[in-house]
Amino acid sequence: MQSRFIRPKxxxxxxxxxxxxxxxAQEIGDASMLSTLRIEQATPTVLLFVAIxxxxxxxxxxxxxxxxxxxxxxxxxxxxxxxxxxxxxPTARELEQWLDELPHKGLxxxxxxxxxxxxxxxxxxxxxxxxxxxxxxxxxxxxxxxLAGNVAAExxxxxxxxxxxxxxxxxxxAFHADHIRxxxxxxxxxxxxxxxxxxxxxxxxxxxxxxxxxSSEGVGILKPISAATIDIIxxxxxxxxxxxxxxxxxxxxxxxxxxLKTTKHGQRMLHRAAIIGxxxxxxxxxxxxxxxxxxxxxxxxxxxxxxxxxEKCQDTKSNDMLSMVMKTxxxxxxDLVVQTVHFLAAGTETIAGSVAWAIHLLSRHPEMQxxxxxEIRQQLPSPCSVNGHSDIRESDFAGxxxxxxxxxxxxxxxxxxTLLWRECVSPARILDTDIPVGTKVVFSPWTMGRDxxxxxxxxxxxxxxxxxxxxxxxxxxxxxxxxxxxxxRCIGEQLARAEMRCLLAGLVGRFEFSxxxxxxxxxxxxxxxxxxxxxxxxxxxxxxxxxxxxxxx
Length: 553
Ligand code: HEM
Known about the structure:
Blueprint: H1 15-18, H2 22-68, H3 92-101, E1 107-111, E2 117-121, H4 124-133, E3 138-139, H5 142-152, H6 161-171, H7 177-181, H8 184-209, H9 222-238, H10 251-260, H11 264-276, H12 278-281, H13 287-312, H14 321-327, H15 333-346, H16 349-364, H17 366-379, H18 401-413, E4 420-424, E5 428-430, E6 433-435, E7 440-443, H19 445-448, H20 452-455, H21 493-510, E8 511-514, E9 546-549
Parallel strand pairs: 2-7
Antiparallel strand pairs: 1-2, 3-4, 4-7, 5-6, 8-9
Protoporphyrin IX containing FE binds at residues 156-157, 168, 233, 343, 346-347, 350-351, 354, 416-417, 420, 445, 482-484, 488, 490-492, 495-496.
């Protein structure tokens, strides 16, 4: 074959190539020419195959599969032409609309991202079948595993089958009421730190505004609340003082809050990531991806240090969650690291978001806020009083009916988990419908908590008094799904309720909260939070509120 190798002008060859003989060069030239030719010839063919594969898959999932579905008889809303909604995952608000408008018998069928079929649990009876009766026939689907596992690691929430049952058993004693009860002094101390942090922020604002009147800018309370939840889980579960509230620049707290907080822009990125799939999205050279990866690696290293420290002093009778779990001998070192990362995630943002929603709602209902403040001040010592913060006991909260009613109502009205997912892994039955393996099932603590069929005509109104009546607030216990139900029910529920008591009591006892722009906001809070289907991060980082100190406590 004639040599067609031409040394490119101005091209400096690396030294090892500069030694290459002409023959070598010719061969290399011929070979590279051949492969270039092959690639050039092959590229259109490969592209054609890829295009055909994508179109065939789209055709199958969008047109053939829905027509062949065994679940076609389940009522389905009109979602419009599939091509226009291919990249859209319906939000909890859309599901709520279907729940109201579509006649159904407890199940609704709809299409999500990439036109995939979903079965929506539209009644408390159906929720009972999914989460209790048939619980072990459903698992968490891959998309949710990847999204949650990326930040929260494959801990208890994402384990399945026998592995889950054994792990849950090992964790159970640490979440016993007695152990939670002991956390009250720590939680109250953290509430004190939180009140101080917000006071400082508000003073700094007044100073900046140059007056004693409240600043029109408001204060950002979400980060200090998140920091408080990090400090509490650190102290209660791991005997670790992250000091995140007192020192907002402390590395762990700052980084952790950065991973979990989001902006509207961040939410849009998350939605796009869900479209292309988190596996691919997490490989993209994006700043958000780098921030998450850096943050997660810090969390994993910290978790590793925490576990190592516990392993070194196993003899000392530490009573934190990790020590109790280690004593069961169930987990290896690496399992414990994973679970530590997991509990840091599970036990922080959920509570911070719920407290933030409660404050948002109370800020919009001053009469409820005043009633709550009166109860708090009558019943509890100020966390700022000399011994007030360390002497608190669970029994001090015993008569605080209105505080508990406000917490239940905030959890009902704004369940932090808007949508949760399952995939059928062995033939199951929900109500009178056979569910085939592979079916994606969605339940929504948010819509279920606001369904007038279960909660009465004022279901979409924030009304803590509904919990104080003689009769039950709803017609079916499974209509309150904020903590899930059955064997996968939230293991941290009692800890979360205790923490919400302390943080809310500290905040509302001390401050009067009011919205920055009442006329532009609503109880639903779409302006400050998101209805995103696929994420937990429901309140935007930049949300601000007026916080005025109320003297006398
Ligand atoms: C207001 C706060 C909280 C809310 C609303 C909440 C909500 C939930 C829900 C709905 C589930 C069930 C998920 C599903 O079935 O797919 C769950 C599970 C779980 N939660 Fe929570 N949670 C909160 C606080 C906590 C805390 C404080 C912890 C731990 C310290 C925690 C740890 C877990 C774990 C480990 C699971 C998995 C349980 C299992 O699968 O066995 N959560 N949570």
